[in-house]
User: Fold this.
Amino acid sequence: MTRNFRQELLTASGGFHEKYKTKEVIGRGLSSVVQRCIHRTTGKEYAVKVIELADDSMTDAQLDEVRRSTLNEVEILQTVSGHRSIITLIDFFSSATVAFLVFDLMKQGELFDYLTKKVTLKERETRVMMQELLQAVEYLHSRHVVHRDVKAENILLDDGLHIRLSDFGFSCLLRPGQRLRELCGTPSYLAPELLKCSMDETHPGYGMEVDMWACGVVMYTVVSGFPPFWHRKQLTMMHNIMEGKYQMNSSEWQDRSHTIKDLIFRMLTVDPSLRITAEQALSHPFFYSHKLEEQPFTSLQKFRVVVWVIVLCARLWANQRHRRPVSQNDLIQDAYRMRLGRRLIDGHAFRLYSHWVKRGLVQNRAALFQNTPRALAEEVHLNHDSSLH
Ligand code: ADP
Ligand code: MG
Assistant:
């Protein structure tokens, strides 16, 4: 920890603007605005988190709380910065009214936004991402730091899509054997023991294990494209969390390996004393068994692939030469056999029913296309209009 930084933070210069030039806003949190900024002498880009420490609308107690938590965030960041999967605090400045925390810039933003674009990650991509996240959590826990807000919005991606865990606003140092009772974090990521503890005064409290539960929620979400415990009624969601009630039988899970499900299951274990630790998770077969399956090709296998490609190209070429135009007879006999026919038929079926035919019983995303009476009425109206013109 740097010399006397506690004092520096409270009394320090507001020299941020002398050293950095601020640019556009790249993110917002509950208590902060994050902007891109440029170091005036080197021209290097960074991200600055600007936290207001004084606000007319805040009570004295709230102001004290913001100051205390900012101080805590900086203290923890200084303890853990340097790990390659944890955000690095480059610089910080503070005046009586505002604090500036300068970080390395994560150009690809939040994992949350990346997921919105990609919906789900492939098994290989999940493996790399989860390994980096678990390494970060293992490092924190080995230094007695519990993060308490691991979630897709606080996992940031750099240019090469490597992750760094950020936002240490809720994190704290935990002495061996010490338990916590405070209710904090993000609802759909809260661990069962954290919820139980907030409802029962006799509960012994919670510890580091809450981060592993949140890692389980992140992993479930990146694999399936939807969170394990989300429910529009918060009470039902809390109940499902405390009971560990989630499903893995929708179509999104059908072609997922046993090892990926097993690791998620071990992280989403309700009893914290039985839940897998970060260190144990990193030795789980999910991170190793694929290496046995991914044997390099032998020369014979390579030769076979080359022959197979040549034969296929020759056949395609021959087919192309003898292709005849589609006749009316072909269309009448079996239109669905031809690609063009299939596209026409499927397109019309979609327009008529307003959704693709469901494959499984609980296919979540199909709900986006559900055939509600309103959608059907609009469809009929549309068809009516177009037939008039
Ligand atoms: P809060 O504690 O208020 O939630 P965060 O530290 O989570 O603040 O930052 C808010 C948002 O700003 C993040 O979710 C992310 O989108 C963006 N952000 C934060 N740090 C960086 C960074 N180093 N690089 C790029 N974007 C960042
Ligand atoms: Mg945040």
Q: What stands out?
A: Strands lie at 20-28, 32-39, 45-52, 89-94, 98-104, 145-146, 155-157, 163-165, 172-173. The first strand starts at residue 20 and ends at 28. The chain has a mean pLDDT of 85. The longest helix spans residues 299-321.
